[in-house]
Amino acid sequence: MRDELPETTHGLAPVTGGTLYYESTGEGPSIVFTHAGVADHTMWDEQVAAFAGQFRVVTYDMRGFGRSPNSSELYARHTDLAQLMAHLGIERAHVVGLSYGARVSLEFALEHPGRVASLVLAAAHTAAATSTPGDDLLEKAIDDACDSGDLDRANELELRLWVDGPGQTTGRAPASVRQRVSAMNRAALEAPEGEHPAESLKPPPDERLGDVRAQTLVLAGEFDVSVCVASADILAAGIPNARKVVLPTAHMINMELPARFNELLREFVGAVAALPAPTAPVQPPP
């Protein structure tokens, strides 16, 4: 499928204290996708195939994932995204993120509102949402497996949590999705840790949802972890121009139902493009 696409350019974009691997395919208005914490840029392959004929589609690996090395300096992922877009000459883009990528996208939208044509937050999580005891136990088991060095067990438990969905049977999601996420997440588990963790926005975005200016689509999976299901309601209620859609998936919404995800994204971006252009605020006289 990717062989029929417009030519893809790729490289390493310089960011403060590091580099980010990126791929850019197609021409037109830009859509930038930010991946989940159990994945890398290839989780968006179906979206690249679907949109590169009409858009410039950019995917990238955050630091410590895929082909992007981890960091030895202090950094913020939303700043990395801004610097990546600047390197690629993208002034404004439709910004799409899933899970950890949704948080990065939300932080970017708050810090750089003029550079966001629209915002899609899929399988996002907020600090204001709470999880069920069962989900907490599974996450603790994952942490324990990582601490003991049992990466095989940690990876399998993460697949149960993020791909199958808590309480769901193994095999509920397509086997191909499970295999792809397994490979991506295992690589992330094996990646060397950086000297500094990513810094989050302060004050946190959860406290500033009313400041988001972009038209926003919130996507949730009905079989996702409880904190993400609850977060979708919080985001949809707190962001002024947001609407929520719930899909019959677990966490990896775009990979489980790529055709439906693409349909929703295409409709959303098209509706945003049809809106009147925002007017610049009137400047007071000097």
Walk me through the structure.
Residues 280-286 have low confidence and may be disordered. The N and C termini lie far apart (56 Å). The protein has helices at 45-51, 77-87, 100-111, 133-147, 151-164, 175-190, 226-238, 253-256, 258-273, and strands at 8-15, 18-25, 30-34, 56-60, 93-98, 116-122, 216-221, 242-247. The protein contains 9 helices and 8 strands. The longest helix is centred in the middle third of the chain and has 16 residues, at 175-190. An 8-stranded mixed sheet has the order 1-2-4-3-5-6-7-8, with helices on both faces. It has a single domain (2-131, 193-273), classed as Alpha/Beta hydrolase fold, catalytic domain (Rossmann fold), CATH 3.40.50. Strand 3, helix 1 and strand 4 form a beta-alpha-beta unit. The chain is α/β, with parallel strands linked by helices and 286 residues long. Helix 2 crosses helix 3 (100-111), helix 4 runs antiparallel to helix 5 and helix 5 (151-164) crosses helix 6 (175-190).
